[in-house]
Model the fold of this input.
Amino acid sequence: MGLLVPSGGALAPAAEAGAVPRLTDERGRVLDLRGWNVEDKTHRGADALTGVTERHFRDMAAAGFGLARLLVFWDDLEPRPGQYSERYLSRIERILDWAHRYRVRVVIDAHQDVYGPAFGGHRGIPEWATRTDGLRYVPHPGDWFGEYYEPAVQAAFEHLYEDADLRLAQARMWQVLAGRLGRHPAVFGYDLINEPMGRLRPGEDLPSGARRIERDQLTPMYNRLAAAVRRADRRHHLFVEPTPATGEAVPTGLGRVHDPKVVYAPHFYNTAMEAGRDYDPSAHWIESYESAVTRYPREQRVPVVIGEWGPVDSSLPNMGRFYEDALASLSRYAAGWAAYVWCYGGGYCAVDEAGRFRPNKERLARPFAGICCWRLRRASFSPAPPLPGCI
Done:
């Protein structure tokens, strides 16, 4: 458990001027959330989500983690327009039951990778909601981010943002999810879309294009989806993401999302490390990322929870240093994070087939406060016993 230094006895107040606000629960207690993404990208249709088991939540909780970002896919939820899968909703509820049994909070993530199954078998937005204007799509094996530059993929995103019928379909999808799951005690919030992208204009570089897409298309989309969710659920937090360009230390162009429970949920990935290279402390990427990513939450007065982070190869020589530098940085501004991903195997997996942490990932299983009723002045790791009021 972390050491939280209290100042006075009031419940969590507004953050000090210039600081990123803290995340609080419905009782005003400050939250410090640590956990993992939980997913099943292998199974779909009748077998969707069968790869997620009770063991995921039992093992996560036993290691001290209390947050799960659960990936769900619109193409499984609504395989045909207006026809929502009762089997899929029931499986989500079963997973939420397991999470509740082990006291794990769940963020429901409407996940997409390279838009959806129309492009190389990815998951996310249904084929019936994919419009490409007849433009080409060429797969990029081993370079998923490169596929976001494909003209057909960029066209599909633009139609999702601009076409009235697709806007309505996306809003209805969220009303179905929130209406069905909003009363479940494990639900903590909704991540409205994973890693959204868009269409770059001729001559436009990624930073300027990303800021324009965030300002002119993502901000209105988030306000539409927030309104849709609130017609079914007024209680839970709404997580909003910038484009993946944020990983290049590009400040977001997102505007105001008009909801009192917005959480800014960027991802924390470095392009070089995603390509399999080791962490380079001399590049000062973490410092640049922190400077860029904290601008929006300070301006908009919203808390931050990092939705995904972690290298594909945690065994490289500098990865121990990476985790220590990353955790120190996150502790300065983030109210929580969900590492990628709790699974049993290789690659990004947290643990191996036997449930043992993979190299350096045990560094994430350090004590932290979880909940505290006091005004927070400072949070740091300490082996000392917890202060009264922190559980």
In short: The CA atoms of residues 93 and 181 lie 7 Å apart.
